[in-house]
Amino acid sequence: MPAFKTLDDLTDIAGKRVLVRVDLNVPVTDGKVSDTTRIERVAPTIKELSEKGAKVILLAHFGRPKGEPVADQSLSLIAPAVEEVLDQKVAFAADCIGPVAADAIARMENGDILLLENTRFHKGEEKNTPEFTAELAKNGDIFVNDAFSAAHRAHASTEGLAHHMPAYAGRTMQAELEALEKGLGNPARPVVAIVGGAKVSTKIDLLSNLVKKVDALVIGGGMANTFLAAQGIDVGKSLCEHDLAETAKQILATAKDAGCAIVLPEDGVVAREFKAGADNETVDIKAIPADAMVLDVGPKSVAAINDWISKASTLVWNGPLGAFEIAPFDAATVSAAKHAAEETRAGKLVSVAGGGDTVSALNHAGVADDFSYVSTAGGAFLEWMEGKELPGVAVLSSSK
Ligand SMILES: Nc1ncnc2c1ncn2[C@@H]1O[C@H](COP(=O)(O)OP(=O)(O)O)[C@@H](O)[C@H]1O
Ligand SMILES: O=C(OP(=O)(O)O)[C@H](O)COP(=O)(O)O
């Protein structure tokens, strides 16, 4: 466990401006937050600081807006859900730096909570520029990072700020690291990992280390299409990053050398439209129609994945197997989630799953409570699993 200061070390903070980095990158359907797990997990930190009389200033990102304001990635859309979960008034400022933020902070009383606009509306956030970090730092006396799920990003609000002021781990940051160490520090073998989802370009690189740590890697979701295409399979209009074919091939070679089995889909459920109830059919993975996209792995693939879950003593899972938000493309994810839950309940499996959408998918399947541990983190959790130092955690340990 890294040595960092926690909220236990934060006394006498009444009236202090505490900048709290949280992860509010939550799933949204039809403009409404569809899974509040990440908000629920950071609520204890926010409440504790507020009860101690601090002025609690929340920093967060939402989506990937590329350094400019985008209306549907405004945190004003998330603020009502934060207020509902906390059952406490949460003010909102339409910028995270400059006079808009400063004025809102000047109006705060002790114990108040203020949410600042999406940090990624500024280019300096992801670039972690000294100028932007200094602007953010003007708004606080103390930095608390409770966004474990964004700790693999060395951004201004996850890493830079800790160089400007005393920095502490929030309750969720602390709990996540403790739980992962307990559950996966020395995992029982065989270890099976499932990686799916849509963030192919940001997650594919970490698979080359992951295959050295696990006995089998099941690849589903949008990630699978990239691997299939790399093997010369025509994936039609599926979500696929063709320019990552070489990376995918190298990962397959590394897995072979490491003795890690790779499990790719044998069949897929395809549709021509990305909408609920769209006409769909199950096809062999080598017969994907050119005008269709794979939106879920097919029944043969699910049976194979469930067999691997049965063989596993430890399961780590990030990324849904299909576009689970729209029926019937949730079938594979729900089936695998239910099977992993059964094996866990029977005491045969330690199951650890993480990621904003993965948690939402497990909740959708009704089995999140049956998993051994559910992390709020996806990419950060996988990087932790690789044994990588997470910049957002490392900087807390070095903070004075
Ligand atoms: N075959 C697919 N085609 C398109 N999108 C997919 C497919 N499979 C999964 N997805 C999408 O992946 C998203 C989740 O991916 P990701 O963000 O990587 O997961 P997490 O948030 O759990 O880390 C979901 O919105 C889901 O609809
Ligand atoms: O949702 C997140 O990560 P996840 O999809 O890996 O769970 C985090 O908020 C990080 O977001 P990012 O991958 O856009 O940096």
Strand content: 15-25%
Q: Let me know the largest β-sheet.
A: 6 strands, parallel
The CATH architecture of the largest domain would be: 3-Layer(aba) Sandwich
Report mean pLDDT, rounded to a whole number: 97
End-to-end Cα distance, whole Å, is 18 Å
**Would you tell me which CATH topology of the largest domain applies?**
Rossmann fold
Helix content: 25-40%
Question: In order across it, which strands form the biggest sheet?
Answer: 5-6-4-1-7-8
Which residues form runs of ≥5 with pLDDT under 50? Answer: none
Helical segment count:
15
Heterogens: adenosine-5'-diphosphate, 1,3-bisphosphoglyceric acid
Supply the number of structural domains: 2
CATH superfamily of the largest domain: Phosphoglycerate kinase, N-terminal domain
The gross shape turns out to be: globular
The count of DSSP E runs of length 2 or more, i.e. the number of strands, is 17
Taking all Cα atoms into account, the compactness measure Rg is: 21 Å
For the record, what CATH class of the largest domain applies? Alpha Beta
Write the layout of secondary structure elements.
Blueprint lengths: L16 E5 L6 E2 L2 E2 L3 H15 L3 E5 L19 H8 L4 E3 L4 H9 L6 E4 L6 H5 L2 H8 L4 E4 L21 E3 L1 H14 L6 E5 L4 H4 L3 H4 L5 E4 L1 H10 L14 H14 L2 E3 L3 E5 L8 E5 L8 E5 L1 H13 L2 E5 L12 H15 L4 E5 L1 H10 L7 E3 L3 H8 L4 H8 L2
Parallel strand pairs: 1-4, 1-7, 4-6, 5-6, 7-8, 9-10, 9-15, 10-11, 15-16, 16-17
Antiparallel strand pairs: 2-3, 12-13, 12-14
The structure holds adenosine-5'-diphosphate (ADP) and 1,3-bisphosphoglyceric acid (X15).
